[in-house]
Design brief:
With about 80 residues, the chain is α+β, with helices and mostly antiparallel strands. β2 and β3 form a beta hairpin. α1 runs antiparallel to α3.
Amino acid sequence: MKEFKYTITDPEGIHARPAGELVKVCKEFACKITLTKDGKTADCKKIFGLMGLAVKKEQEVVVTFDGEDEDAAYIKVSAFLEENM
């Protein structure tokens, strides 16, 4: 299992467009990928779960990877977040 913390920098937080793009990236991997904010966790492969967390700018999230391709997922998803959120 791998995880990292990230502070959202997008002025609108995690909104529909980047959430949809994040779901597409996460679906490329077999491992389980979750995003946690304030004790609530969502599956990163489901857009409604991500949107339900209502993550705003400057809030910290924890992204967790668990499974066979977690190393590759960690690299790609962390790069995606830094470039887009």
